[in-house]
Amino acid sequence: MPFDALLENYLAVFLATIVGAGLIATALIAARLLAPFSNQGNKRTSYECGMMPIGQTRTQFSFRYYIFAILFLIFDVEAVFLFPWAANLVNAGHAAFWEMVLFIGILAAGLAYAWKKGVLQWNK
Amino acid sequence: MIGIMRSMALVMKVALTRKPVTIQYPEVHREIPNRDRAFPILIWDEEHDEPFCTGCHACERACPVECMTVVMKDNPKHAAGESKRRKIIDEFWIDYARCMRCNICVEVCNFEAIGMNNTWAGHELSRYDRKDLVMDVEMLLSQSKDGKVDPGLRA
Amino acid sequence: MVAEHERSLEVVDIPINMGPQHPSTHGVFRMVLMVDGEKCVDVIPHIGYMHRGGEKLMEAMDFRQGIGYCDRTEYLAQFSAELAYVMAVERLMDVQVPERAEYIRVILTELNRLSSHFMFMGAFGIDSGVFGTSFTYAFPQREYLQELFEEVSGDRLMYAYFRVGGLAWEVTDNFVQRCHEVLKHTQQGIRDIDELLTKNEIFIGRCQGIGAFTAEQAIANGLSGPMLRASGVPWDLRKDEPYSVYDRFNFEIPVGNYGDVYDRYLVRLEEMRQSVSIVEQALEQLPAEGPIVAEKLPRRLRTPPGEVYAKVESPRGEWGVYLVSKGGDKPYRLKMRSPSFCNLSALREMCLNQFLADAVMILGSMDIVLCCVDR
Amino acid sequence: MTEVFFYIFAATVIAGGLGVVLLRNIVYSALTLIASLMGVAGIYILLSVEFLALVQVLIYGGAVMVLILFALMLTRTRELKDNLDGDQKPLAAVAALALLGSFIAAITQTTWPRDVNQITTVPFNDIGNALFERWAVPFEIASGVLLVALVGAIIIAMQEEGER
Amino acid sequence: MLLAAPAIDIDQPFVNAALGLIAFTLVMTVGVMYATWYERKIVARMQYRLGPTRTGPFGLLQPIADTFKLLTKEDLRPATADFVAFELAVFLIFIPALMVFVAVPFTADWFISAIPLSLLYILAVSGLSFIGFLLAGWGSDSKYALLGGMRAAAQLISYEVPLIMAMVGVVMVTGTVDAYQMILYQDTVPLIVWQPLGFMIFLIASIAEVERPPFDIPTGESEVAGGVFIEYSGIRWSMFQLSSYVNMYAFALLGAFVFMGGWEWPFGTDVGWGLQLLLTVVKMSLFIVFYLWVRASFPRLRPDQLMSYAWKVLIPFSLAQIFFNGFIIVYDLPDVAYLISSGLLTVGLGYSAIFIVRRGEPRKPLQMVPARATARKPEPEPAVVAAAEGAAT
Amino acid sequence: MMVPLLQESVTTGVELQQYVILSSILFSIGVYGVLARRNAVLILMSVELMLNAVSINMVAFAVYTAPTLFVGIIFAIFIITIAAAEVGLALGIVLRVFRNRGTANVDEIDSLKW
Q1: Least CB-packed of C235, C292, D24, D132 within 10 Å?
Q2: Please, which residues have CB within 8 angstroms of residue E12's CB and are 6 or more apart in sequence?
Q3: Which residues of chain A does C11 touch, with a Cβ-Cβ cutoff of 8 Å?
Q4: Domain segments of chain A as ranges
Q5: Which stretches of chain E drop beneath a pLDDT of 70?
Q6: Rounded CA gap, F57 and F19, in Å?
Q7: CA E153 to CA E173: how far, in whole Å?
Q8: CATH architecture entry for D1-76
């Protein structure tokens, strides 16, 4: 029964998360039991090369990363369409191929636009 | 690309053809040269069975870091006629923690009574407390007395 | 509410504290990088963590005792530091150093330059992110140099071997042969480093165009040594104001065209090759016999009153000793012109608008010795 | 067993959703959103649409979450956490409950076909075929939408660059 | 299933999968412990060193000693850290790494679970780990950690795309998204022959995905001094290391069965499981040795170079690969066409390594200045100024 | 070993209504979030919840009632696509507003022009 087999297969995935979490939890509990733990003030400051932390810590980072995230999002969505297409291309025929070429072409144009706009290049 | 490949080739070449240079230190001691300057020690005069040092304070004065303390006394053996040295060392402290091993004490010594240890014993001096690094005259002389100092020691 | 929004509206540059306890600040150097994203918009260097008042200490010491302190100030190019100090005293006292001693000084100083540059190559590789390989390729070869120094002077690091008027004692009997052996290892090391880094595209990508200084900027910032030469100024004290016996050797000065980090690396690499050639020439010309200490030196060195500035080309640049004497056996005032300190002053200008990762490379390319900066 | 897992996933989805709308720390909200979306992926598995479940993980778990987390960290919202909810909160609750009530009412009032526990599994290949034969035009339009999103985002970002 | 041994003949899928997973997790943990030993030994030999020698023969007990040391090491958490994010990050980095293994076939009969869309599954799951990095960076409340976390997330997502695209190319050639079928496809010729470009992209992107040098920017020691892991000590830190190594194994295995033919090539399906497992392990080890080799030889990239390399070089090339593959499939060209197109593209990829280098005129070599005309002769007299004023007063 | 999934009818323990109820609960939560929250990013997250609720609905109906067409699944794929595009753009705008106005609070972004 393929459907049951499918569920069975994904059961292992579900279990993997539990086993993984269990392993980490065991290790953390073991460490809590074995390792010394100190609440002393200076030990609980965050690392700043031996100095007291200066300024805000949770502040902005480069806006560039956000653009890469958007690019990634777009190409990830593209991948979603690519997989069923790729696995089925032998049967799908010419039309599907050229459709996908158009699809990739449009997104590649987006990438080219980003490239031309200098988004991919971090200038000084 | 070619540069990257050359780097990788070099690394693999080293891994496959060249020997590691590691010396397994506590088990294997590298041979140290004759002139090695560890820490100053006092030299024992075998002939007269007493230290060469007369306690003349020359090294104490010349020491840039003032790590030495010398106390002189009249030589009892001189009184007994066994030795030509009229004065002899009574107490001698060297703080190895301060010593900067500059060899100046050896250079200024007129009696060749102090020398820089050139054995591994002069290097392996780790202590748990730094006051244990203040050496008195017994410790300073012990190595030379036992004849453990390299004969080439330049005093 | 309004105030809160205004607070969040301003674009805050994060101050990132790099050092004193940081793997790549080469000691206890602290720089506060004001970072906008990944870019440095300001750099505030803080020095002085290693300050021991070495110059002041040396004023309380006679001229022999001071030599040991020179070693400790510049612990990677000890012979250069010693040389400058003894040269200063020699000039004040008007002592003529025997030729053999001069040759040995040059040989040792150049070998010391090699060992210092090996240190740079190793550490710079690590700054650029090589997982220790550059370090372990440079250091076994550097070890041979140090063994040679130990055989000659008795210590691996704090040689205290040069004396006013010559050398502390005669070199070992097989000195020339040992030098030749060591040079073979050195050349091997240079080849390895060259092969590992110079043409590596990633290394090139990390180095080229970073921290570029023009010749004018370099001169205005008082740079010296490989930093200056990489910017295109052919200035080398060994050529331009020859001291000791440097005028007798035939060597070339590598000069960069772009003044960036990569040029500094190349200049140093080429300098190592030149140093090998200088040592080889010096070994050939080395008089077999001869005194090693100037004659008629008093036991206690006393200088006439006066002031003198002696400078040598250390691996990091112009190492100068300015010495004022009022007579007597101690300097009245002593000032060391340390190249690390002067080169470090260009850090801010070089790092502006560079990436955070590049600031590390720029600092690494300066090849500073923190002891020498703080003294 | 399917039922058990359905309730586990449904609980994850709803708890995650509640976390999103109720938690006071916005980063925790984002975390519960991830949990909720992963629960939805589990629901898709139960519905035998394996491909869609993986797409859910790939797009929502991977790409959308990265955008949301980046946006949270770029807006430094942790410092402004105390005004996450508006004054219209009670009204919103009433509206949502009313909506839910009407939904439930509609669902319970509807007469469902007899074989409501019969599902038809969806093979992966058929999705591909359908996508490229029947749905070719929407597919190409999707690429256009993505392109527009990309270009728009870049324009917004480049404006940002020009300011600095 | 993994525990197909007759002794444990439990037909419950639940118990079976759980037992398999637990057994696998334990084996993997020990494997990872020894991977550190293996790594230290190999890298040491590349660097004139010996590596661990003191603990047991050849330092073989070193991983155990390390484990105990890490277990008993003081565990610190900054007072300002966000408790939930800080603790959860450890889980969220490790669990995706472990989940990948669920779909990996070790031999023809040994696998934990047979997921039909295993390749897509692996890519989707391994893409989740960035959440852990972001949380670790944000939760630690340290600037270095935040910087490292951002870099990690940006790097992971950027290299996820070429990885997926390379895999799409492979999926096109084999016509299946199932890793098992993909291995069966490679009974005579491994896919590395047909898809050298895909292999190269996979290799580069997988190094970036497991954040090993030269792509270890998020944890780059000389810049961000440990990056995201900076506030993690003791066992938490070792859990990060564990996940990093597990990830490395995962990608090595993925490479082994997608491009090297897994347990199939070159002996076929009929050999016993022992030989198959050996083949898998050997191929995986090849990848791991390669990772170590790369680690020992390369400097680290800069964040902007890293990003532009992914987006300007790898992704266009992988798109081109997809186009050529599709063309070959649709127009029924012979298989050699794969090799030709992909091989040519690989050469192009190699050439494009110069993209890392700043574009511009080729650099002039150093000028060698032999002697200066203006060189002054050494001053014969010492520069003594008699009784300097400063000194006299 | 593994059997490729074929199109077949199977009986499960879960009924269609349950999925629909789950979907409507999730949708209502999303509605509440959109109405109650003031932070723009949180509103977007609530919108994601609503989109997912719709997707569940689509897929459930497709799987339970339309044996061969599975229009709902294709629709879900497109919903995900559109959601991705929407999130990318909307968050970009939120960030833009945040940089200009210093707030991600929708109640305060009330002027048409600034």
Answers
A1: D24
A2: none
A3: 60
A4: 3-44, 63-117
A5: 1-13, 353-361, 371-393
A6: 7
A7: 31
A8: Up-down Bundle (1.20)
Q: What is the mean pLDDT of each run of 10 residues along chain B (155 residues)?
A: 83 86 86 84 80 84 87 82 80 87 84 83 86 85 76 57
Q: What is the Cα–Cα distance from E290 to E259, expressed in whole angstroms?
A: 15
Our count of domains for chain F comes to: 1
Q: Which residue carries 């679970």 as its tokens? A: E113
> Taking every pair of C-alpha atoms in chain A, what is the biggest distance, in angstroms?
70
- In angstroms, the CA B20 to CA C137 distance is 11
Tens-digit pLDDT profile for residues C176-198: 888 999 999 999 889 888 888 88
For residue range B95-131, list pLDDT tens digits in order: 888 888 888 888 888 888 888 888 888 888 888 988 8
Please state the rounded mean pLDDT for residues C70-82: 87
CATH number at residue F80: 1.10.287.3510
> Please, which chains are in contact with E (at least 3 CB pairs closer than 8 A)?
A, B, C, D, F
Q: How far apart are CA C149 and CA C158, in angstroms?
A: 10
Q: pLDDT digit string (tens) for E326-352?
A: 888 888 888 787 778 878 887 887 777
Quote the pTM value.
0.86
The SS3 assignment for E368 reads strand
In angstroms, the CA C277 to CA C275 distance is 5
Tens of pLDDT, residue by residue over A49-106, are 767 777 666 566 666 777 888 888 888 888 888 888 888 887 777 888 888 888 888 8
Q: So where are chain D's domains?
A: 1-76, 123-164
Domain membership of residue F38 as a residue range: 16-101
What does DSSP say about strands B114-116 and C14-18: parallel, antiparallel, or unpaired?
unpaired
Using a CB–CB cutoff of 8 Å, tell me whether F103 touches chain C: yes
Smallest CA–CA separation between D96 and chain F, in Å? 5
CA–CA–CA angle C331, C335, C336 (5° rounding): 125
The full 3-state SS of chain B, as one line of letters, equals CHHHHHHHHHHHHHHHHCCCCCCCCCCCCCCCCCCCCCCEEECEECCCCEECCCCCCHHHHHCCCCCEEEEEEECHHHHCCCCCCCEEEEEEEEECCCCCCCCHHHHHCCCCCEEECCCHHHCCCCCCCHHHHEECHHHHHHHHHCCCCCCCCCC
Torsion, Cα F66 F67 F71 F76, to 10 degrees, reads: 90
Residues of C in contact with B10 (CB under 8 A): 192, 195-196
**A1 Cβ partners below 8 Å, 6+ apart?**
F10
Interchain CB distance below 8 Å, C4 and D80 = yes
Residue C98: CA count within 13 A, CB half-sphere: 22
Asked whether the predicted pLDDT for residue D21 surpasses 80, the reply is yes
Name beta bridge partners: E111: E105
CATH value at residue B43 = 3.30.70.3270
Count of residues in chain E = 393
Q: Is the CB of residue C11 less than 8 Å away from at least one CB of chain D?
A: yes
Residue C322's DSSP bridge partners are C309, C335
Q: Tokens for E248, please give them.
A: 């490395």
